[in-house]
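Researcher: I'd like a candidate sequence for this fold, 415 residues long. If you have to choose between options at a position, lean toward the conservative one.
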């Protein structure tokens, strides 16, 4: 299998126009001592909304690498795919995020559950996981409970993995298992048995995306108990390290943080924990680059600012349509959204400062930011007009994209 490096950075790009600007941030970070590697990611939902194909993501990545002379590894992620959607990604992708959220919480058949309990019976009693202060109390019911919640999902992940393996060859791609889109966070014990199931399915997972406590809303900061998150993150790192040895999983298996962009308040705890344990990390970002495109267009003034205002106006008027698919990962107070007529009066500076994620700026409005975040469909409907604006204002857009990734993300997480 391909071997994923210790630190990787998922750089989603809605419109596949910012590859060079994104990679420029990683190139600059490397000069500063951060050895991280890019993973371009885009979900099937985004491709369907924008009417693009996964091949465009590969084209963008290859072009950026060539233009900047990048000689390190890089990847193209089939983000959040299942058996129904994976085939479109087979030619372009060499990183597969297996999304089994729809199967989580549904029980596997009784025979499979009983077999899983028997296979893990050796853990019954008090288990000490190095790095976790308290012993873990494990009973047969604990193992069966984990199996009831997660075994069917991991069996589905196994089906997706084998489907890709048959068509790509096991040496030609990286596998991630995603269990983050569930209602409740997994405990360290549940993580242990999820990893046991992954190993039993023969999935050579190199990253795993768990569900953490708190809200990981799109495009805005983490909302939740920071102390609890830090404890969960630290304990998950310990469980991963234990499971690698216990189950024979790939030695570079690491945590993957989804909706990781703009979660500024948890970057410090993540940085400390990764350094403490000598662990790897994959941070997945996506919509933050699309928002920097809009900020760049707004800063350009003229037609660029007009497009930025139009995106907001239409998103405001189509609130339910655009927010519905993202209801679980946004929290917008509608009464705190400025009226489009008010936004129409704004100059470049006011629009950019309202949207840009600088929390110390009194103009910043997280409700405005989240609505624009889910409004990329409006920009897609502008078609060539939007793409021409990106071309006309490439320099200022790229400047915002690169600065955002380097200063507000990479430096805080990886340096």
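Model: Candidate sequence:
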């Amino acid at each position: 299998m391909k071997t994923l490096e210790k630190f990787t950075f998922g750089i989603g790009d809605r419109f596949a126009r910012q590859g060079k600007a994104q990679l420029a941030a990683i190139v600059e970070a490397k000069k500063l001592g951060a050895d991280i590697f890019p993973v371009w990611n885009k979900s099937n939902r985004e491709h369907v909304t924008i009417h693009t194909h996964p091949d465009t993501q590969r084209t963008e990545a290859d072009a950026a690498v060539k233009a900047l002379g990048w000689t390190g590894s890089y990847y193209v992620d089939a983000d959040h795919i299942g058996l129904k959607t994976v085939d479109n990604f087979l030619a372009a992708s060499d990183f597969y995020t297996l999304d089994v959220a729809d199967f989580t919480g549904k029980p596997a058949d009784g025979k499979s559950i009983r077999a899983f309990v028997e296979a893990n019976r050796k853990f019954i009693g008090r288990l000490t996981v190095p790095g976790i202060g308290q012993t873990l109390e494990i009973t047969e019911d604990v193992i069966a409970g984990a199996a009831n919640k997660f075994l069917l999902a991991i069996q589905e992940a196994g089906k997706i993995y084998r489907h890709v393996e048959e068509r790509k060859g096991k040496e030609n791609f990286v596998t991630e298992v995603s269990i983050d889109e569930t209602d409740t966070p997994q405990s360290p014990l549940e993580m242990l048995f999820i990893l046991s199931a992954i190993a039993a399915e023969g999935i050579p997972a190199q990253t795993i995306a768990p569900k953490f406590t708190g809200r990981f809303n799109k495009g805005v900061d983490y909302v939740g108990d920071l102390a609890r998150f830090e404890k969960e993150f630290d304990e998950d790192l310990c469980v991963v390290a234990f499971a690698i040895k216990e189950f024979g999983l790939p030695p570079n298996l690491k945590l993957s943080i989804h909706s990781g962009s703009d979660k500024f308040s948890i970057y410090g705890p993540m940085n400390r924990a990764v350094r403490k344990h000598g662990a790897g990390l994959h941070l997945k970002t996506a919509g933050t680059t699309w928002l920097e495109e809009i900020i760049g267009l707004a800063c350009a003034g003229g037609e660029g600012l007009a497009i930025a205002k139009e995106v907001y106006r239409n998103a405001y008027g189509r609130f339910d349509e655009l927010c519905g698919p993202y209801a679980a990962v946004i929290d917008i107070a509608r009464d705190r959204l400025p009226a489009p007529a008010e936004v129409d009066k704004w100059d470049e500076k006011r629009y950019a400062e309202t949207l840009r994620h600088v929390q110390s700026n009194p103009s910043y409005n997280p409700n405005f930011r989240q609505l624009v975040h889910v409004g990329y469909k409006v920009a897609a409907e502008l078609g060539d007009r939007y793409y021409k604006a990106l071309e006309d204002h490439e320099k200022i857009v790229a400047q915002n994209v690169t600065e955002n990734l380097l200063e507000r993300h990479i430096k805080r997480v990886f340096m």
